[in-house]
């Protein structure tokens, strides 16, 4: 025990003495920073991958993996840190996608702007949901059912909406490659756009994890009554989390629209896609910076390869994999892959610092505290 | 619009409500006793439909005989599920329980799609569309049978819960798991029983619907949502609430289909649902007393 306390003290000292300690030390001593660094490394690897991944088939899988990781990061704020049972997450994605394509097809507004404008309806919907549910403090399983009902209502509404192409769906006409319309023949530009998104998602998650907001959210998740008693405005912070997640997800929807060039209401407001998008953060680790990225890497490429192997004639393979993933992870590894890595990291840090302390002797610790 | 159309719509709604009631009672029983929101519940209705279909196509067994086999099989599946899947997450956060049952649901749907294909099928029997007419109102025989059986089963179950020793033990578990355990009730066994009954009811509903209901692997998701609407409407965990909620939703969907067209009839139950959640999140029938 004494040894442990010494180590904790030492970590505290290294952190607080901001001028003397090198940057690297501060990164290595902080789990969130480590996760952020791993995320950056993965982004770099993906960025150079076109050098050796030539086939469009594999690049497509890579881009989808990145997109899923990004949506996972977006959901992570509200579903991971805040722990809200926001199961119907896809409405924000769908609104982003529809805004982008309607603006392009009917008003000739470039997706470069349209993707960002798509955040507006998503945020408005998030505000509506927050207004309707959070002020009543709707019980968590009821909140989940409510968000699913929103999904169904939106899919019915959009299947009747003329400007959105109705039930048939809507597509971007693909004539020739054009930077302005965000239409490219090669896959590489899409890869870099998706990587920029992923970087954004990573940064937002990292900042939230370190900020007061993130701490409040975790406090609310772990003990709502306790947080309330300490004066945390629960509804307000949950709303913040919902807004951030909704806005980030709308960007993903806009990108998905220009990348796949076709959507219909049953896809972008439908259960199966929604379900798919939530797998990554859940198996990767909810409420961690790196979790959604690890989760996406773990499931998306495998699912695509299996689906390719069984071809279209055998539907259901993805559902079987997702189902197994969910059941196995919830029973054996409920905190996901990142939840497995964190204790490992802490043990290594403990051991390293302890060894350093022995090397430096206890005298330094005492002189530092003075 | 004349009276006979309205009457016909009402009858259709009540018949639909009868089958909904079977699904919803199982769901609300599982929720009320075990506090588990089971998203895979309605997928067992889908499995019931398919089992009735296959037992007729492969072995020539009539659905009304197959339903007894289905009840037994599903009861055993329920016991197994409680042992393998539900028990480890009983005291986990709600989100984990929800994700687990969602995973189970996705797994079942995936397996059915994989082995039996995603295309819709229907079971066509000589009596599928037989009906009797009372005045201007036409009663479809299979739907009538489904309604009567649902009613009988619901009444039987109600009597079981309120008068037998096991039924009282189940209600004790729903009030407090710990207190029930301290009184010498084997909670784990009660949970197995409850999940078994719940799934058997869903499977029975599937078998009863099979003579004239088109089946596809995703049919569970439509029923799942309706069942949740009913259960919330009738207050989660309330047996009679689920029954009357089912009638309300059945009739509302039936009239919704008449007024705004079949494809939008889901919107009716969805709007009822949203309003109930927002205005009376405790449901119309209050409290939980299974």
Features:
heterodimer, A: 370 residues, mainly alpha, ABC transporter involved in vitamin B12 uptake, BtuC, two-stranded antiparallel sheet, 2 strands, globular, B: mainly alpha, 74% helix, 3% strand
Task: Describe this structure as you would to a colleague.
The complex is a heterodimer of chains A (370) and B (290). Chain A is mostly helical and 370 residues long. Chain A has one domain (2-369): Orthogonal Bundle (ABC transporter involved in vitamin B12 uptake, BtuC), CATH 1.10.3470. Helices cover 76% and strands 1% of the residues of chain A. Chain A contains 18 helices and 2 strands. Chain A has helices at 2-16, 23-29, 31-48, 56-81, 90-107, 111-117, 119-133, 140-160, 188-210, 212-222, 224-229, 234-260, 265-268, 271-284, 291-310, 317-332, 336-360, 362-369, and strands at residues 170-171, 262-263. Chain A has a two-stranded antiparallel sheet. The longest helix of chain A is centred in the C-terminal third of the chain and has 27 residues, at 234-260. Chain A starts with a helix and ends with a helix. Chain B is mainly alpha-helical and 290 residues long. Chain B has a domain at 12-114 and 141-220. Chain B contains 11 helices and 2 strands; from the N terminus they run ααααββααααααα. Chain B has helices at 3-34, 41-59, 63-89, 94-116, 141-163, 165-175, 177-182, 187-209, 219-233, 239-260, 265-279, and strands spanning 131-134, 137-140. In chain B, strands 1-2 form a two-stranded antiparallel ribbon. In chain B, β1 (131-134) and β2 (137-140) form a beta hairpin. In chain B, α2 packs across α9. Chain B is globular and about 60 Å long. The mean pLDDT of chain B is 86. The A-B interface holds A 79, 83, 85, 87, 132-133, 136, 138-142, 144-146, 148-150, 152-153, 156, 160, 271, 275, 282, 286, 314-327, 330-331, 334 and B 37, 85, 88-89, 92-96, 98-100, 102-114, 117-118, 217, 221, 225, 228, 232, 264, 266-267, 270-271, 273-274, 277-278, 281.
């Amino acid at each position: 025990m004494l040894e442990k306390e010494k180590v904790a003290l030492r970590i505290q000292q290294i952190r607080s003495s901001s001028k003397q300690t090198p940057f690297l030390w501060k990164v290595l001593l902080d789990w969130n920073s480590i996760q952020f660094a791993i995320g950056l490394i993965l982004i770099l690897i993906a960025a150079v991958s076109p050098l050796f991944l030539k086939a469009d088939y594999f690049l497509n899988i890579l881009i989808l993996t990145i997109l899923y990781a990004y949506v996972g990061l977006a959901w992570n704020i509200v579903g991971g840190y805040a722990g809200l049972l926001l199961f119907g997450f896809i409405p924000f994605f769908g609104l982003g996608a529809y805004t982008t394509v309607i603006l392009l097809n009917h008003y000739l507004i470039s997706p470069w702007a349209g993707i960002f404008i798509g955040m507006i309806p998503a945020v408005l919907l998030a505000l509506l949901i927050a207004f309707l549910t959070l002020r009543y403090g709707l019980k968590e399983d009821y909140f989940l059912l409510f968000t699913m009902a929103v999904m169904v209502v939106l899919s019915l509404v959009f299947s009747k909406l003329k400007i959105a192409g109705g039930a048939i769906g809507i597509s971007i006409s693909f004539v020739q490659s054009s930077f302005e319309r965000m239409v490219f023949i090669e896959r590489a530009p899409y890869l870099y756009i998706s990587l920029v998104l992923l970087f954004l998602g990573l940064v937002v998650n990292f900042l939230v994890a370190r900020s007061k907001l993130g701490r409040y959210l975790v406090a609310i998740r772990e003990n709502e009554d306790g947080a309330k008693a300490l004066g945390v405005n629960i509804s307000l912070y949950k709303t913040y989390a919902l807004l951030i997640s909704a806005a980030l997800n709308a960007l993903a929807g806009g990108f998905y629209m220009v990348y796949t060039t076709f959507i219909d209401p049953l896809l972008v407001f439908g259960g199966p896609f929604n379900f798919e998008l939530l797998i990554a953060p859940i198996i990767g680790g909810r409420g961690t910076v790196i979790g959604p990225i690890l989760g996406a890497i773990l499931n998306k490429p495998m699912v695509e390869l299996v689906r390719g192997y069984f071809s279209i004639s055998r539907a259901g393979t993805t559902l079987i994999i997702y189902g197994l993933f969910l059941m196995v992870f919830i029973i054996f590894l409920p905190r996901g892959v990142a939840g497995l890595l964190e204790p490992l990291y802490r043990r290594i840090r403990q051991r390293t610092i302890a060894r350093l302390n022995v090397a430096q002797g206890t005298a330094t610790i005492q002189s530092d505290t003075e | 619009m004349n009276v006979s159309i309205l009457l016909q719509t009402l009858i259709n709604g009540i018949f639909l409500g009868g089958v909904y009631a079977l699904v919803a009672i199982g769901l609300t029983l599982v929720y009320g006793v075990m506090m588990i929101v089971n998203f895979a519940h309605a997928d067992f209705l889908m499995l019931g439909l398919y089992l009735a279909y296959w037992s007729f196509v492969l072995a020539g067994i009539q659905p009304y005989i197959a339903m007894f086999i289905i009840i037994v099989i599903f009861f055993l599946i329920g016991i197994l599920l409680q042992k393998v899947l539900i028990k480890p997450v009983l005291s986990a956060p709600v989100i984990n329980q929800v994700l687990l049952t969602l995973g189970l649901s996705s797994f079942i749907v995936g397996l059915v799609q994989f082995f039996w294909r995603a295309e819709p099928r229907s079971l066509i029997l000589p009596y599928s569309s037989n009906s009797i007419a009372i005045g201007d109102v036409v009663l479809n025989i299979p739907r009538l049978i489904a309604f009567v059986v649902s009613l009988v089963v619901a009444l039987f179950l109600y009597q079981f819960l309120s008068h037998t020793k096991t039924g009282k033990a189940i209600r004790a578990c729903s009030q407090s798991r710990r207190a029930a355990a301290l009184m010498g009730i084997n909670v784990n066994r009660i949970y197995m029983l409850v999940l078994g009954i719940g799934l058997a009811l869903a499977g029975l509903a599937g078998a009863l619907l099979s003579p004239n209901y088109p089946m596809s692997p995703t049919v569970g998701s439509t029923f799942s949502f309706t069942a949740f609407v009913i259960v919330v409407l009738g207050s989660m965990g309330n047996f009679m609430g689920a029954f009357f909620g089912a009638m309300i939703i059945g009739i509302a969907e039936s009239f919704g289909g008449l007024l705004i067209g079949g494809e939008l009839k889901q919107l009716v139950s969805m709007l009822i649902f949203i309003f109930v959640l927002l205005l009376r999140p405790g449901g119309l029938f209050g409290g939980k007393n299974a």
